[in-house]
Write a structure and sequence with these properties.
heterodimer, A: 337 residues, mainly alpha, two-stranded antiparallel ribbon, B: 229 residues, alpha+beta, TATA-Binding Protein, 2 domains, five-stranded antiparallel β-sheet, 45% helix, elongated
């Protein structure tokens, strides 16, 4: 496979990746379907912003956000059914039940662990150590500016954490199970080893004292933009949207079976971070996963980083003790750098 | 393939040596699909062969019984939910049927999943009780350095002009303390576990009905399809 040169890299040499927007798929169907799947994403973003901007205080609370999120997930699952991007990514009962298990694990066990060692605990400690009052002027900014700042600062942290996961072997071992997904569906973002889910959940947006409503607005941006990373819906995404925001197209490139392509599009919501730091590849891919598309089951996902970490550590020690010849340091996976 | 028809008289269990008359309906699916009485067993098996001849699936045929096992099948494998199975042809009255007896790890694990999440709920209750005891002990010490309520925040003039509701004044909140204490305790709520246990029970019941239906439909389609080349 020849691949396509993007900057200094060749994308699509190992597995098919469509590079550029010229040849990506379009919505097929009548004018109503075309209309709905062209304007769905921006309309939902602006509707969510308008709701959280104007909702009275009694309604603008976290429990409302949870209820909306649930309804939103059901709606997106319906869209996957109506207008799938690829039939080869169709959600089956088994895939749905498996994805739900990871979501549920995040809502129960991980949340319990997070209460002690998560970003909330870290932020509390840092806030206690410094006088953050000098940042009070943040709360005087217009709400939308605060919301965009929260969202971008959080995503900036995620970008570098994600990029680090693809560049440092110990972190890669935690992230690798997520790259064994072979299709994108609404809940696939939750699939992965709990250690990785914990690490990627660490945010730096919470240090500053924003207004609560700004946080809800930032959450609305994440819910109506970042959610499309993992989804099997064909949209005619507007040009301005795909320039600023991450899309399914971008994220499918990131998950493709092509090694170089996986080293791109690290951001969660703002693809503009990838553009700034030179890691953006516009395009899309259908064949996803690792090892030629081997599916990783729940059991292996849970033990993978520890099993591979143990093997690699043993190999490293063996190599050191035998003066560099024995126990070839041969990780089962190609580290991402 | 020999084409010899098997019979139901001989016990045909997916797990040999295990005899669980009713409870195994949780993870086992048995059923039948009618076939053309004139169709030889070899041809019937050949027609369903494309459903089984895929990477990660081992298929064998002995004494007129087709047996398969799958190792972590692909997401789009049409029989992904059923990791082991047996199929054979039987005469039924004037006609014939293809009978199947399938085993599903996925259904079994989904059936057990509510137990795991009920367990997490119990864990949350335990931690909550443990933390409450800890908080009571520390409550007296904290009383001395009670914080002043934070000053009320004001909206940016742009937001005022656009009509966004003003933030609440923290000093006007009466039940702040109670709410704070409740919130703190609420971080280990058993509710999520209960809800998820219920959702998994519903997902199991749905899957137990849907997956056998899909197997029947796929087998029927394969048997009605064009004869193998």
């Amino acid at each position: 496979m020849a691949g396509v040169q993007v900057g200094k890299r060749i994308i699509g040499a190992d597995a098919p990746v469509t590079v550029g927007w010229e040849n990506t798929g379009r919505v097929e169907g009548g004018p109503v379907k075309q209309f709905v799947f062209t304007y769905f994403q921006p309309v939902m973003l602006f509707a969510a912003i308008a709701f959280w901007y104007y909702a009275p205080n009694w309604l603008a609370v976290a429990s409302t956000a949870i209820a909306i999120r649930l309804g939103w997930t059901v709606l997106l699952l319906a869209l996957e059914w109506v207008n799938p991007r690829y039939n080869s990514w169709q959600l089956t009962w088994k895939e749905f039940a498996t994805d739900l298990f990871y979501v549920a694990l995040g809502m129960t066990f991980l949340r319990m662990v997070d209460a002690y060692i998560g970003d909330g605990a870290i932020i509390e400690a840092v806030q206690g150590a410094f006088d953050w009052k000098k940042f009070d002027w943040f709360t005087g900014l217009p709400l939308l500016v605060q919301a965009v700042l929260i969202s971008m600062i959080f995503d900036f942290g995620q970008y570098w954490m994600h990029r680090a996961m693809h560049n440092w072997h110990p972190l890669w071992l935690t992230h690798a199970p997520h790259h064994y997904i072979t299709q994108l569906n609404v809940q696939k973002g939750a699939v992965g080893n709990p250690v990785e889910l914990f690490l990627i959940g660490l945010g730096i947006g919470g240090f500053f004292d924003f207004l609560p409503r700004a946080f809800l607005l930032a959450g609305a941006i994440g819910m109506t933009v970042g959610v499309y990373q993992h989804i099997n819906v064909r949209f005619n995404t507007p040009r301005w949207w795909r320039f600023i925001f991450n899309t399914t197209e971008h994220h499918s490139v990131h998950h493709s079976q092509d090694y170089e392509a996986t080293r791109s599009n690290y951001s969660g919501t703002w693809i503009i971070w990838d553009r700034i730091f030179g890691t953006c590849v516009d395009g899309e891919a259908e064949q996803l996963g690792m090892e030629g598309g081997r599916r990783m089951d729940i059991g292996e996902t849970m033990v993978f980083p520890f099993r591979e970490g143990w093997r690699d550590t043993k190999a490293w020690f063996a190599k050191r003790l035998r003066g560099g010849s024995g126990g070839a340091m041969q990780p089962a996976l190609e580290p991402a750098e | 393939m020999t084409g010899t028809a098997g019979t139901l008289e001989a016990p045909r269990r997916a797990v040999t040596g295990l005899k669980l008359p009713l409870i195994d309906n949780i993870w086992r699916v048995r059923g039948e699909v009618p076939i053309d009485p004139g169709m030889p067993a070899a041809e019937a098996f050949a027609r369903i062969d494309p459903l089984l001849r895929i990477p990660g699936t081992d298929v064998s045929e002995e004494g007129g019984v087709l047996t398969y096992t799958k190792r972590n099948p692909q997401a789009q494998d049409k029989l992904a939910t059923f990791t082991r199975g047996r199929m054979w042809i039987e005469q039924a009255g004037a006609g014939a049927v293809l009978r199947f007896d399938l085993f599903s790890h996925a259904l079994l694990l989904c059936f057990l999943a509510p137990l795991l999440f009920l367990g997490f709920s119990q864990l949350a209750i335990t931690i909550k009780a443990w933390e409450a005891a800890d908080t009571e002990a520390g409550a007296k010490a904290e009383k001395k350095d009670e914080k002043k309520p934070p000053a009320a925040k004001t909206l940016n003039p742009v937001d005022e002009f656009l009509g966004a509701p003003a933030p609440e004044d923290p000093s006007k909140k009466k039940k702040d303390k109670k709410k704070d204490a409740k919130d703190k305790e609420g971080r280990h709520s058993p509710d999520e576990g209960y809800v998820l246990a219920g959702i998994f029970a519903a997902v199991y019941l749905f899957g137990r009905r849907l997956e056998p239906f899909l197997v029947r439909r796929r087998l029927r389609a394969a048997l009605a399809g064009p004869p193998p080349a």
